[in-house]
Every structure is written in structure tokens, then in C-alpha cells.
Amino acid sequence: MAKIPVAVLGATGTVGQHFVKLLIDHPWFELVALTASERSAGKRYAEVAKWYLSDEVPEEVAGIEVRPTDPGAVEDAKLLFSAMPAEEAQKIEPACAEAGYIVSSNSSNFRMDPDVPLIIPEVNPDHLALIDVQRKRRGWSGCIVKNPNCTTIVFVLTLRPLLDAFGVKSVFVSSMQALSGAGYAGVPSMAIENNVIPFIAREEDKVEEEPLKLLGKLEGKDVRLAPMRISASCHRVPVLDGHTEAVFVELGRMASPEEVAGVLGKFRAKPQRLKLPTAPEHPIIVSNAQDMPQPRYARNAGSVPGMAVVVGRIRKDPALKNGIKYLVCGHNVIRGAAGAAVLNAELMKAESYL
Amino acid sequence: MAKIPVAVLGATGTVGQHFVKLLIDHPWFELVALTASERSAGKRYAEVAKWYLSDEVPEEVAGIEVRPTDPGAVEDAKLLFSAMPAEEAQKIEPACAEAGYIVSSNSSNFRMDPDVPLIIPEVNPDHLALIDVQRKRRGWSGCIVKNPNCTTIVFVLTLRPLLDAFGVKSVFVSSMQALSGAGYAGVPSMAIENNVIPFIAREEDKVEEEPLKLLGKLEGKDVRLAPMRISASCHRVPVLDGHTEAVFVELGRMASPEEVAGVLGKFRAKPQRLKLPTAPEHPIIVSNAQDMPQPRYARNAGSVPGMAVVVGRIRKDPALKNGIKYLVCGHNVIRGAAGAAVLNAELMKAESYL
Amino acid sequence: MAKIPVAVLGATGTVGQHFVKLLIDHPWFELVALTASERSAGKRYAEVAKWYLSDEVPEEVAGIEVRPTDPGAVEDAKLLFSAMPAEEAQKIEPACAEAGYIVSSNSSNFRMDPDVPLIIPEVNPDHLALIDVQRKRRGWSGCIVKNPNCTTIVFVLTLRPLLDAFGVKSVFVSSMQALSGAGYAGVPSMAIENNVIPFIAREEDKVEEEPLKLLGKLEGKDVRLAPMRISASCHRVPVLDGHTEAVFVELGRMASPEEVAGVLGKFRAKPQRLKLPTAPEHPIIVSNAQDMPQPRYARNAGSVPGMAVVVGRIRKDPALKNGIKYLVCGHNVIRGAAGAAVLNAELMKAESYL
Amino acid sequence: MAKIPVAVLGATGTVGQHFVKLLIDHPWFELVALTASERSAGKRYAEVAKWYLSDEVPEEVAGIEVRPTDPGAVEDAKLLFSAMPAEEAQKIEPACAEAGYIVSSNSSNFRMDPDVPLIIPEVNPDHLALIDVQRKRRGWSGCIVKNPNCTTIVFVLTLRPLLDAFGVKSVFVSSMQALSGAGYAGVPSMAIENNVIPFIAREEDKVEEEPLKLLGKLEGKDVRLAPMRISASCHRVPVLDGHTEAVFVELGRMASPEEVAGVLGKFRAKPQRLKLPTAPEHPIIVSNAQDMPQPRYARNAGSVPGMAVVVGRIRKDPALKNGIKYLVCGHNVIRGAAGAAVLNAELMKAESYL
Fold first, then answer.
1. What is the phi/psi pair of residue C104, to 5°?
2. Contacts of D86 (CB under 8 A, 6+ apart)
3. Cα(A307)–Cα(A344) distance, rounded to whole angstroms?
4. Domains assigned to chain D
5. pLDDT tens for each residue of A18-29
6. Cα torsion for C191, C195, C196, C197, to the nearest 10°?
7. CB–CB of B323 and A171 under 8 A?
8. Which of B296, B319, B327 sits opposite A229 (nearest CB)?
9. Dihedral, CA of residue B261, residue A325, residue A211 and residue A182, to nearest 10
10. Which of C207, A201, C197, A246 is nearest to B196 (CA)?
């Protein structure tokens, strides 16, 4: 099978770097182009990517000339992964979709648009059908598919099986988020050394509204938002990668911590059944250790490293009816961003949208 | 007025060090003795206290010979501040109370005993009346008075005015706790570097039950526990001092963030009216900055540094009826431990128990 | 005595903030103006200074309107403290000196110019005489006086008494420098978390050449550079404030660690004799602890906090003839920058240059 | 070829864990036993090893029952890797060697004994011949072979090619050492958060004397110490793994940074020629980046991750005759400890001592 040629838009940042790593030896996709802002275009990738990963810039891409981020500059690609800042993506992504590209985007724009599929393959793979709605409505030959915010993905992966097994009425989530979520220069060391910053711009809105779409029902051309209430408090801590989230859930019916652990640990979904290359065997790993999940360990969890989330400390919640609480931790840039978009593209391929 | 002679039991640890700092120039109390375990007894204080504060061991105490922790070894003192490990305090504190000492203790034992006053002077000063119950029941001439757990104190300070103004039905609290809470050698650097540890032994139980007593009503010889539900999730982050807590509160009636800010910011209580030396003018400082409170700043807040807590990011909670959410941060070893016990003793003195 | 009106140029950065703190209650100087870049001019100081210190922006300045950095904008001041970036200072400082202002500057430009006094008051107060040379040569009524680089100051304070007592032939210095030295946004947290960055742009050149001027002899209109060799290796570590330096010194004659400790500990100089307000009683504190100096403690050392440096671990050097080695640590922004410039101005005042 | 059965003595600590990882799929060695202190013996490995590595305890060993550290308890092994504390190793290792075991030890005892080979396979493989001297002198059928201290190994790897090409007269080394060097609980987080500890017990002595033996000449039954002078200053910084060292070297003859880079980058030695399984293709990697080597990257360098050291910032030294200075960084627990001992054992096998 010939590989599908792909490009990464906005390839030099932290998310872009993980895209590169995930795509270099991908069995279905072939990385043919990397783009960045005007300032970086024309230079070698190794020169402009402030590589933060602990290994070297992969040889295969180190010498590649970075292209400008423009639909006309990536015509050898068919599928585009977008790690652009939202303001740029807002303009460039529609132009790309109109030009016929499939855009699998991690950027935060358009996520709540009714005809834009917002997908976690284990959670709502059927929402991909919105692609047809989107194409018809907008007259595009390509399309735009989104993955959610990193913090959203990590805990919504656990809500899917809980919702199916017990029902979910309300959720409180309090996050301890990694530095990489803000981008390479996002958090000055002087701001976070020996400190916590209990605020992340626009994060709580995303974490409160995206799950309602993700867990909503596709009815005809629309997603009916899930009938639950979500409240988030988002905080930055001095950790390089890996978002840790304390989750308090009001279930629809009583369930013991053991039952919850069973349901979470056994969870498999379409990406597992389809054996998508970037899908971990177990999207949720339940740890029995009393002090897990910790980001230094959980961020690399899974048969595809960084693609599983780890749940621990499942216990009854004394303040909620049918309440449980637990911790969940996952790699914010892999499962929460680049890996999410790659898995979405793999699902599109498996479902013949690509 | 002659000063009251006081001793610190368990003076070498992190809490003990803050006791020393708060007591050295205290207007009412005179520090006459420091005790520690057998291993340290007989040595100079500066030698055995692994001083973690950023200034030097105060000259006044550096050369003091540490005594063994024993009622017979501190007979020149009348008031004892206890920073002992709970297991030791369990045995030694009753012996001290029986021997006639007033014990103001930060140790976690006995806190929930019905005849032991568990006090935050701004929250429930009237509970001191349990001293009489305790003495009668146990036949002691001295007594034991407790302050709560550090995490408890920080957010319960904010619950008091909310309860009085609006009622409180349920509370969810998710903490990001400082290293000093575990003691000097409590958290190895290899455990927490580039990491979060989302577990603190026995912490959540304390945080869920102590507030019910603190906010309860003294009725005759008993405290009737407050009729509210509390759920806690406690986590350690790489910060030296200062506990940061995300709090979600179901109020008894609707209140806007502005009303809540007003009530919290105006809060004054008995310690302020009595002008107790260690009472901050404002026990709660409300910050309007979008990214506060942060522990590096909040931990020194207040007219008595470290004795005020800082509240920020007050906003509506979308998942609770009459819900609000906010962040609160305070110094876990000052307001949350040593300063708490000193303030309790000042209240006792002002109320003539001393 | 009427206070001398002073302004801080470049008042919003980390050095500017320390200038503000040191000047607010200064006995000789009165802070009348704060300047910043065009972008910040016209706004309130509290709004534009990203305050990193652990206390609040002082009330006295929080509401002050920041002025543009321009000689014409600070005419109510006589003395200017400069914390400008070197490129700007290069242009603005001469204009100020020409306009008659006394400029006490921390900026790195001009430091090695033959007619610019580069001063540490404890090391070479007599070099102030270059002011007359400078004025004559340049036709200025004002003048420019510089303090050295932060890393330079910390160890050169120790070289002065060693040179006088034993002679100094060569010096190797290996630094572990704090984040604040790079400015608030200088080091991204993602760059330094769980890491060391063993490079600081242009730092080693300064550290190797400035001491030769500081320890040189003023002969007529020129400073004859000190006849010693210095080699530096400069490195950034995850510490907020406080530069720690490992120093290996080849002395002119044999001296035991005890002799060296004696000479360093007894060191007093002109600022101490003149009782300058910002001069610490002991510019060098010798610690006998086996594991000191550590930046978390040493950075606040001295009777004027942050103005003394702490020396520890003095021992023979086995690889140098007459060699000794030791550690020295000092606050890079106080003793190494803002406090240095304030002390220089105090010396100028005491010596009637002001 | 049948694999050689091996055991790890002291298998639960940080060095022990790396031994386990390196040995699990080793082509020549088969891990048959893990030992620990009495307290841990009899328990499952996963239960007693406080696993600090970012992946899980390998399945192959998680369930293994830990044995007591005793020659009689590992009779199914022929080769023993020792990660015991020096005091224990002092007693147990001779007993093992007498009982006929080959002991490849990372413990610091005996390293300077004249008849104990202290080996870095790239530096002094011929010193293995001391095994015969040792056996004859002590009447052992087994033997003890040591690798040096972690800090020593990292920079001595660079001295070997410099000595051969240019001569080396004196060396100054200033280290920034990782937390893992002190063991899991060695450095409390409260000691090192926002701090540097410029002292490591007994480290400088090792770093100053071990290189003289390593670079010395084997003459008959003795090693003649290398005629050079070494001075060390050792410091702990908040980094998990990877020692960074600033090195100043007085060469025997003038060499430019380019020549030095050439000699270091081309260095290969016996382990490379023998293609030992744990030998990296290039023991020294020279980086041209202006701000490398950094431990977060360098600690995983090499074709066998963690077994190469990275050199950067090679420049002339202005204070030494024929002086150069540079940075070198390597993984302290892999190249500096467990990997060092494994490579020593591979050399022994290749040289038929095993």
C-alpha cells in the first residue's frame, strides 16, 4: 500500500515536534513537508525547532527546509496535521479544506462549530460523519477534523466508559498541568520556580464545554450535547510533561470503586478493535499503587508510549450522591495533542475518509 | 506584665522552627525551653535543627541545650507548644496536661475527641469552653487544645464567612500542597523532581472531617458537627511552602462572585477584635489578579506575614446549584501549623484560660 | 539634610524592582521617577512591572505613572540608576551624563572604557577619581559610573583581601547562576526544568576581564590592569536568586585555609568605615558549615540583606602552587546589581561627587 | 553460547535498578538473582525496589523473590554485580571473591588498593592484568574488579585521548551533579528545591585520586600513578540524572579547540574494537551547539543510551599555559555506575577472565 503523503503545519513548536516523532516511521503516513511561520520558512528544521525532547532531532527531518504555512506550499501532501496557533489556524485551515486537503487539527479554533467533528476515537468515532455535513454545508472537497484540548482528552477518556456503565450527571475536575502545554517559551522559569500558577488562559471554558460535545449524541446533522454539568479549575505546576487531574464524578447510579476500576480497566473501543497503529492496547491503565498516577511515570504509559492514560486512587466521594473520585494522568502533548490528531487521521483512513 | 514562660516540644522540625521564630520576640510569651527526641537531647539547638528557613538560626536559641521531651524537663514553662509526631504526642500530651501544663498542639492526635477543643480563632473561638469539659472529665489541671491540619485551616478560614452569609451545603477541595508539610526529609527530591505525587497519607480524612467540627455548634458539653458534606483530593507539588487549594462550594443560597469577594474581603473575627499579637488584620485577602493566589507570594501574605490566606479567581460554578469556585492559598507551616497554635494560645490568654 | 532626588531608568525588570525596594526608604535618596520603554510609559508601575519578589509592589510606587526613558523626562531627579538593556544604555546614558545627571549604572556597556569608573566600593573606591578624567575628556557636567557584572562582583569581593594579604596569580571560577540573572522571561521553564544550561551569552568574557580593571591600580588618568590571569566557566541552574561560584586561586604565597578564612572574615573596607547605608557590616561572611554556602540561605546574608557574600569550604588546592579553593555565594540582583549601583552612589555622595 | 549466570547485589537502589535494566536482555549474561538487605529479603522485587525510572519495573523481575546479600545465597550465579553501600561491600565482596565469584563492583571501597583493578574499559583495559596479582596475593579463586566514581568516569573518558595526543599536566573540575547520585532518599526535596548544595561527602577525594590510577601505567605488579595534578569542587544541583562537569585542562603542549574537538570526537578504544555489547560506538560525542551539553539531553546520549558522554563548549583557557576548557556531561548511573560495571564485565569476558 502506498503511504499517504502528509505535512505538519506549525511544525517547530512542542506539538509540532511530537507530530514529527510520531510520523517519521508511521506505517500509513509519509511525512513530506514541515511548515512554520514566515520567520522560519526557508531554514533547516533542526535550526528553527527548539527541540525539547530528550533525544536528538531525528536525522530524517533535521535537514529538511521548512516551508511557509500556506496551502500552496504543501501540494505534495494530502493530509495536513495542524499545530498552528488558533488565530492563524482560523484563517489557514478553511483555505486548506477548500483546497481539498484533509486537515487533522489540534488547534483550538472551530472545535465547537456544529459541523466540525470534535473527535476522540475511543469516545465518539461516529461523529466523523459530520464530515459529510461540513462538506455539503461549506462546499469543501477537503475537511477539518479536530481533537479536543489536552486536559479535556485525559479525563473524557475515563468518562466514556463511566457514562456507558453507570451514567454521569456532574463532574468536577481540578488539574495540575505541565509546562509543555503552554509551549516552549510559554512559562518563564522565574514564574513557576518554587511556585504554582493557578490559572491558564481560556482553559476552563474548553474543559467545561468540549466534553458535552464529545459525549453528545449525533442525531442527523447535529450533535446533541450530553446532559451533564462540568466544572473545571485549571492550574500549572512545575512539571515538564503530563497533566494530572483530580476528578470527582456524580454517577447516574451507585457503583463501588472496584466496579469503577473494572469498567475503566477493561475499556476498549473502536481504535483498539481496528488496531489503529497509534492506538494503545488499553487506553486506560488502572494502577493499584496508593500514590499513582504520577506524571513522571504516567506520561509514557501505554503500548504506544504516551497514548494511554493512567487512573489511580479510585474512591467513594462523600459529598456527591453516587459519587466517586479518582486521579487520571496522561501525556498532554502525545495523547492530548499530536497523538490525538494522528489517531484521528488513522480513524479517518480506516473509515475511508482518507 | 510578666511574660508567660513557654516551651516547644519537638522543636527541631519544620514546625518547631517556625514556633521558634514566632516566639522569640513574642510580646506575651517567653521561650524558655526547646525539646526534642532522646537522640538530640543534650545538644545545642543549632546543631540538631536542620534549619530550613532562609535566615539563620536565631542567635537567642542557637546555643540553647535541647532538652528531652518529658513533662519533668520543662518545669520552668507553663504553656507548651507541641510539634511532636502524632504517635509520641498521643502519650506525652496527656501526661503534660495532667501535670498542669496548658498544651497548644499542632499534632494530629486527639483532634476529633469530643472534649478536645479544635480551634481556629477566627472560626470557632467559643469552642474553647470545651476546656472545662475536658478538665472535669479527665481530672486534669492543665489541658490540651488543638489546631487543625494545615490544609483544613486554609480553606475553612474561607468557609466561616460563607457559611454565615450564604450557608454552605457541600464543598469539594483539591489541594496542591507544599513539601514542608511532609517535614524536612519527608519527600525525597528524586520522588518529586519534575513530578506531582497525588497522594498524602491520611490527609483526606482529616480534611473531610475536621471542618465539620470546626464549623459545628457548641451545645452544652458537645460540638454538633456542621451539616455539610466535604470531599477532598490531596496532592503534593514541588513547592517549598504554601498550600494552594481549588475549592468548589455549593452555597445555601445564590451569591455572585462579587458578593462572595465582598464577604471574604471584609471578614474579621474575634482575634482581630482582640488584637491578638499574631492575628493578621485581615485573615483573608482577596486578590483581583487573574492568576493569583500563587504560593510564592501568598505564603507571606498578611500584616503578620504568613498568617493571612489569599483568595483569588472567584467565579460561578456551572455544575453546582448556587455554586461558586475559587482558589485559596496560605502558608502551611505558619497559618497552617505553628502560627495556628500560637494564635490559639493567644486566644486562651485573652480569654483567661492561661 | 534634604534627600537627593533619584530616578530609576528601566524600572520594571528584575533589577529595576530591586532598585525600587532599596530606594523606597533610603536615608539619602528620594525616589521621584521610574522609567521604562515606550510600551510601558504612561501606565501605572504596578501594572507594567511583572513583580517577582515575594512581597507586594510597594504601595509608595504602585500607582506611580511610569515615564519614558529619556533625559528630558526625569528633570526632577539628579541621580539616575540605570537598569536598561545594554544596547539602550549605550545611547541614553551618554545623553544623560551630558545633560548633567550622575548616572550609576548596572548596564554592561562602557564598563571597560578607560575613563569610566568600574567600581565595587569595598574593592577599588579610589577609581572614582576617573570621574574627573571622564568629565574633562568628554566635556560632561554629569558622569557615568558602573558596577560590574553580577558574577564578577561576588568573587572579586573575595579576591581583594586575598590579593592584599597573599597576592593572587591566577583564578579559575566555575559558576552556578540563578535564573533572575537572565531577566523575568530570560529562561523558559521548559529549558531549565530538570536541567542545567552550561552557557550564558557573553558572560565569561565579562567575568574574565572586569576583575583585572577592578583590582588594577589607578595611575594618573589610567587604570593599570591587575597582573593576574582569570578563567571562567559560567552555567545556569534552576535557582531563583543567588549565584554560587567555585573558585580556585593561585596565591602569591602559601596560606593555610585557616589564614584565608581569617583574612576573608575580617575584611572591612571603605564603605564599612564610612558606614554607607547599604554597606553590610561584613561584606564577606565565612561559614564553617561543611555544606555551605547555599543560595537559598546565602542570598539574604548580611546586616543589609543580600549585600554580603558567604564563603565556605575553604580548602587547599592540590593542583596549584600556593593554591586554595572555596565556594562563594551572593545575591546576584542585590549585591550583584541593584545594591551594587546604590552602594556606588552612596560612595559618590560620601566622597562629594554628588 | 550459554549465557553466564549473574546476580546483582544491592539490587533495589538506583544503581541496582539500572543494573536490572541493562541485564534483562543482555546477550552474554543471564540475570538469575537479586539481593538486598535483610529487611527486603524474601519479598518480591517490585515491592521493595522504589522504582524511579520512568518505565515500569520490568515484568521479568517484578515477581522475583529478593534474596539476602550473602555469598551462599547466589550459588547459581558466577558473576556478581555489586551496588552495595561501601561499608557492606567492604565485608561481603572479599567473601564472594574467596568463594570463587567474579565481582564487578561499583561500590567505592577497595578502589585504590594496589592489587584491585580500577577500570574504565576505554581508558585502561590492560589494568585487568592486576586480577592475577590479586588472586596470587590473596589466594582467591574469584576476584574483585572496580569501576570508578561516577564523576570521575565522566571526565576521565575525555582525559584519556587528551593525554595520548597532547599530554595532561593539571586538571580542574567543577561538577554539577544529579540527585540520583545520592540514592533515592539521599537528598530531601526541601534541601535542594530552589537551591544548590555545594558539597558531596567524600566526593572530591575520589575525583582527585582515582584518575591518577586510571591514567597510570601498569608496571609489573603495580600501577604507577599518572604524573598529573587534579583539583575538584563537587556540587549538587536539582537535576534527576546526568552529571555536568566544567573542566579546565593544562595540556602538555599547545592545541587549538578544533584539534581538541577532533581528538575527542574520533576517540575509539578497545571496547569499540571488541564490539562489547554495552560499548557505545562513540564514547565521546562532541556537540557544536553553543549551549550544550545539558543533562536532560546528554544523559541519554550514545548508541547504547546513557553510555556516551557529550562534550561541548571547547575553548582556550586564558589562565593556563597550553590551557583548554570544556564541558562534559554523562549519565551518572549508567555510564557512571551500572553501565560501567557491566562494561567492565564484558571486557573481562572478552579477555577470558570470565
1. -105, 110
2. D107, D108, D109
3. 13
4. 4-149+338-350 (3.40.50.720), 150-331 (3.30.360.10)
5. 999 999 999 999
6. -20
7. no
8. B319
9. 70
10. A246
Contacts of C291 in chain D (CB under 8 A): 197-199
**pLDDT digit string, tens, across residues D266-286:** 999 999 999 999 999 999 999
One of D96, D143, D150, D329 is an active-site residue; which one?
A: D150
Per-residue pLDDT tens, chain D, 354 aa: give them: 799 999 999 999 999 999 999 999 999 999 999 999 999 999 999 999 988 887 778 989 999 999 999 999 999 999 999 999 999 999 999 999 999 999 999 999 999 999 999 999 999 999 999 999 999 999 999 999 999 999 999 999 999 999 999 999 999 999 999 999 999 999 999 999 999 999 999 999 999 999 999 999 999 999 999 999 999 999 999 999 999 999 999 999 999 999 999 999 999 999 999 999 999 999 999 999 999 999 999 999 999 999 999 999 999 999 999 999 999 999 999 999 999 999 999 999 999 999
Q: How far apart are the first and last CA of chain D?
A: 13
Residues linked to residue A256 through DSSP beta bridges, in sequence order: none
Q: Which residues contact C142 (CB under 8 A, 6 or more apart)?
A: C96, C97, C98, C99, C100, C101, C102, C103
Side chain identity at residue C338, one-letter code: A
Looking at this protein, which amino acid is placed at residue D287? S
Q: Which one of the listed residues C18, C243, C282, C331 is annotated catalytic? A: C243
For cell 470545651, what's the residue? B130
The residue assigned the cell 561559614 is: C287
D188 closest CB neighbour out of B185, B194, B238:
B185
Which of these, B271, B301, B270, B300, lies nearest to B284 by C-alpha position?
B301
Chains that touch D (3 or more CB pairs under 8 A): A, B, C
Set of cell numbers at residue A29? 503516513
- Determine phi and psi for B18, rounding to 5 degrees: -70, -35
Catalytic residue among A18, A127, A243, A331: A243
Cα–Cα distance between C62 and C75 in angstroms, integer?
21
| Alpha-carbon span C242 to A205, nearest angstrom | 39
Contact present, B279 and B307 (Cβ < 8 Å)? yes
Residues of A in contact with C52 (CB under 8 A): 190-191
> What number of residues does chain D have?
354
A1 has pLDDT over 80: no
CA distance C149 to C214: 11
Has D150 been annotated as catalytic? Answer: yes
| CB-CB contact of B174 with B276 (8 Å) | no
Residue type, position A343, single letter = L
Residues ≥6 apart with Cβ < 8 Å to D152 = D206, D207, D210, D211, D214
Q: What is d(CA D345, CA D12) in angstroms, rounded to the nearest whole number?
A: 20
Q: pLDDT by residue (tens digit) across D9-30?
A: 999 999 999 999 999 999 999 9
Distance CA A161, CA A57 (A): 38
Which residues have a Cβ under 8 Å from the Cβ of B207 and sit 6 or more positions away?
B149, B151, B152, B173, B175, B230, B232, B234
In the chain, the amino acid numbered C108 is S
The beta-strand segments (E) located in chain A are: 4-9, 29-36, 67-68, 79-82, 102-105, 143-146, 168-177, 217-219, 222-224, 229-236, 243-251, 284-286, 309-316, 323-330
CA atoms within 13 A on the CB side of D112: 10
Phi then psi for D14, rounded to 5 degrees? -65, -40
The CA-based dihedral angle spanning residues C151, C152, C154, C157, taken in that order and rounded to the nearest 10 degrees: 180
User: Quick one: closest CA in C to B194, which residue?
Assistant: C194
Residues 6+ apart with CB under 8 A from B295: A194, A195, A196, B176, B178, B239, B241, B242, B243, B244, B329
By the 8 A CB rule, do D32 and D60 touch?
Answer: no
Would residue A127 show up in a list of annotated catalytic residues for this protein? no
